[in-house]
Amino acid sequence: MTTPNQFNPEAFIELALSRGVLKFGEFTLKSGRVSPYFFNAGLLNDGEALSLLAQGYAAQLMACNDVEVIFGPAYKGIPFVAATAVALSQQYNQSVPWGFNRKEAKDHGEGGVLVGASVAGKKVWIIDDVITAGTAIREVVEILKEAGASIAGVLVALDRQERGQGKLSAIQEVQKELEIPVHALITMKDLMDYLEQKGDQESLASMQAYRVKYGI
């Protein structure tokens, strides 16, 4: 059994910066808000980056007692869940079944929208990059419940810790509406702590102003 690696938020932030996954500056989001940072997990597209992310997901999952199946929503969640299954096996000697969904159902072969391990009667953790509006997560939860799964929780890479249309963040809305826990590897506060540690006062000031305006 391999000795587990502790997830290091600072190391992950630095890797994200080096890959262009995380950028500080001025970015207009789909919501119309002008954000002082941008996070695109789709750029975690090499082995080292994906491995580090998977180690973080695996460490979080090992702190839970109800991991029976892990599930990655199409499309970004698919490599994340596969890599996490490998990390759980190699680091913790835990062989956890995994699966994902198709965007469109097949009418031949194995058919349906679900691929991989059966979720019927199982406690399922959903693994994804971020929750922006929560629409995609709600759709996946519905698909899994229709297949007989019990949703144990959701694990994401980043929690932006900002309000949606109301007083709650998208993550808080999902937790309240669906009554499931949502955990994140890093948060906006982690990004601010990193900037403060590195002495980047300009970016930190922009983050602080954004948090005052939109933070939870």
Kindly describe this structure.
- Helices cover 41% and strands 25% of the residues.
- The chain is α/β, with parallel strands linked by helices.
- It has a single domain (9-214), classed as 3-Layer(aba) Sandwich (Rossmann fold).
- Strands 5-4-3-6-7-8 form a 6-stranded mixed beta sheet, with helices on both faces. A two-stranded antiparallel ribbon has the order 1-2.
- Helix 2 (47-62) crosses helix 3 and helix 6 runs antiparallel to helix 7.
- Keywords: Glycosyltransferase, Magnesium, Pyrimidine biosynthesis, Transferase.
- It catalyses: orotidine 5'-phosphate + diphosphate = orotate + 5-phospho-alpha-D-ribose 1-diphosphate.
SSE layout and pairings?
Layout: H1 9-19, E1 22-28, E2 34-39, H2 47-62, E3 69-72, H3 77-92, E4 98-106, E5 112-116, E6 123-130, H4 135-146, E7 150-159, H5 170-178, E8 182-187, H6 188-198, H7 201-214
Parallel strand pairs: 3-4, 3-6, 6-7, 7-8
Antiparallel strand pairs: 1-2, 4-5
Helix pairs in contact: 2-3, 6-7
